[in-house]
Amino acid sequence: MASNEDVYDVIVVGSGGGLVGAYAAASRGLRTLVIEKTDRVGGTTAYSGAGLWYPGSAPMRRAGLDESVEDARTYLRNAVDDESRERLQDAYLRAGAQVIDELEQNPWFRSFEYAPVPDYYPALAGASPTGHTIFPPQVTVAELGEHAPLVRTCLPAERWGREEGPVLSGGRALIGRTLAAFLETGHGSLRLDTALESLVVEDGRVVGVEAVSDGERVTFRATGGVVLAAGGFERSQELREKYQPVPQRASEWTHGCPGNTGDALRAGIAVGAATDLLDAAWYVPGLVWPDGLPLFHTGTRGGIWVNAAGERFVNETRPYDQAGREIVHLHTTTGVSHIPAHWIIDQRQLDRDSFGGAHDQPVDPEWFESGALKKADSLEELAKLIDVPLDTLRATIEEFNGYAETGVDERFHRGETPWDQIAFHVLGFPALPQLNYPAPPTPGRPNPLLLPLDTPPYYVATILPSDIGTKGGLKIDEHARVLRPDGQPIAGLYASGNTAAAMTGRVYPGAGAPIGSSVAFSYLAVLDIAGGTD
Known about the structure:
Blueprint lengths: L6 E7 L4 H10 L4 E4 L16 E2 L4 H5 L6 H12 L5 H18 L9 E2 L18 E3 L3 E2 H4 L10 H6 L6 E2 L1 H14 L4 E4 L2 E9 L2 E9 L2 E13 L8 H7 L6 H4 L9 H8 L4 E2 L4 E8 L5 E3 L7 E3 L13 H14 L7 E6 H7 L12 H5 L3 E3 L2 H8 L3 H17 L11 H9 L31 E13 L2 E2 L6 E3 L5 E7 L17 H17 L5
Helix pairs in contact: 1-7, 1-17, 3-4, 4-17
């Protein structure tokens, strides 16, 4: 039995997007404990840009966008195409605008900011070419003070030891601001290096958690509820091999936080929770860097990707989730290996775009020294280098070069969507004239996303299927309550983020849906715990 000091109103497991739910609880006077498995706060959210796909939210109204939430609902319905998730979608759309209104009342959060990022399925009814994504404002280390060292560092800093400056942006800004607001309520407590082991159940109700903290087993009780917001199971090779279609080295290729090994998923299953979408992930293409591991890649500036047959297979610039899922799907269904895929560019492309960094900077020699970027003086040498049939490779490149001359990618339509064009623009180039940006930087070329591959030598890099987390987990209802297989809620148990099965199903409708879901459903959980009075 725990001592009185170990009793809380709310326990939140995980410190990513669920930290917003913890703040919402503590700000209502509920004694709230956050337990975090690692030694830093933020989880995978800290690695992210912290986009929140929140149609109708205040930052969008301040930006002068006369948008309809009903249009966004129509778009979401069409993209997900799953009636069983419609109540979750409606709850999400309500909660997104509501949670931002509440957060912006606290000086720590200031004003979130809108930035145009097109919806990822532009042909669907309700889709917006400028999107619904908002972002947290930056915050300085000096402003955060003693809270700053608790925030997880960005991925390049963790992976390569790169120096971080005095300003936190994106996910680190969201986490830093939320952490400060949470702790300063006077009702919030944080336990780092504390890993969930199991849930405590009494008379059919979840009343607490058992955890290991600094090597010792501890029990914390919750009178109101436990919110599981501990990410997915992307770092567990065992669970990925059990549930997912591409076992290989998925747990190494992921961009999920190192602590995301499925502890909350296992704990929920152990008390009778239903699950869904366990075979799914937020897949993204991963460019293999000189250290041998992939890094989330989006906005391909040129060249083509080919499979083991030497054939092009996708619009290389389509939204990252779609491109990543296509690699996995084709690899597992066609009998042709797409893992790895080979990214081919030529000297013209390298001169215009460089590689692995800013387009106006030379390629770092480590790319060649490590073999992450290889050079071939001819197509014959290139075919041997990547072990694909020369005739097929030559035909693939000739076809692509024809598209480059006309500016129309007849096979995969690269460069024709708002996402393609804005992705090119934000990488430092103006987009196509259809979006009223300045003229493209390649004179005489009708589509700057289609430069011909006709200027040897050729260069090749490796694309692997990476992900930003698994997206299957515990089934929840519109109040974020965890459900049993019969559809009844498990009393006292809630889930959000990648611990819960995604309300978006197998698709990724727009930038900010994953973090947006984590924030929205942790908030909804707290509203339910608090009695639904807010």
